[in-house]
Design goal:
The protein is α+β, with helices and mostly antiparallel strands and about 200 residues long. About 65% of the residues lie in helices and about 15% in strands. The N and C termini lie far apart (about 70 Å).
Length: about 200
């Protein structure tokens, strides 16, 4: 761009400034970014700073592509909203944090009341006791049975997912093997015709 004039202070600090031009109105598939390098050229006997456009290429790694793909899918499906799994996990995390903070508050009050730091409020203590009775007791046989059943179900689901992925990988391998074997078989038959 010809109309860009860097202040002399910038040129004193940075020997060869770069100019980055963003075009928000572009409808092309390429990135709407242009990079210009400063070049000092003599025009009419005077040293003048000009900007020459630099070609560039983007180099990305697999992790970056996966992240960009995830963001693009989220943007395309919900206008910037999180995926349903992420929303579910965020809601669970918030609920657990809230439960943790409230249980800690109740525990601090009970400890302070026990130590005599705060006066006893029997209504609050009764509500805390009622809350404790509502929670499942972790040492009962029914809890242990239900807990191990649930752990087994989760383990089974993870195992089935692994088996499904393994079967898919094996299926892809067999398909590739069959394609390769068929090519070699055709080649042998064709060579047999010529000999």
């Amino acid at each position: 761009p010809k109309n860009v004039n860097f202040p002399p202070q910038v040129c004193e600090i940075i020997e060869s400034p770069l100019f980055l031009k963003l075009n928000p109105m572009t409808k092309h598939t390429d990135l709407p970014v242009s990079v210009f390098e400063s070049v000092i050229d003599i025009i009419n006997g005077e040293a003048t700073m000009l900007f020459a456009e630099l070609p560039y290429t983007l180099a990305t790694e697999e992790a970056e592509r996966i992240g960009v793909d995830h963001v693009a899918r989220m943007t395309a499906t919900g206008g910037g909203e999180n995926s349903t799994v992420a929303e579910h996990l965020i809601a669970q995390h918030s609920a657990i944090k809230m439960l943790h903070s409230r249980v800690r508050l109740i525990l601090e009050y009970v400890r302070a009341a026990e130590a005599g730091e705060v006066p006893f409020n029997h209504e609050i203590l009764r509500e805390a006791c009622a809350l404790c009775h509502c929670l499942p007791v972790l040492s009962t046989d029914k809890f242990k049975t239900d807990f191990y059943d649930q752990c087994n179900d989760v383990g089974l689901m993870a195992y089935l997912g692994t088996i499904t992925k393994t079967c898919n990988t094996m299926n892809q391998f067999v398909n590739k093997f069959n394609v390769l074997y068929d090519r070699q078989g055709i080649g042998r038959r064709m060579r047999g015709l010529f000999f």
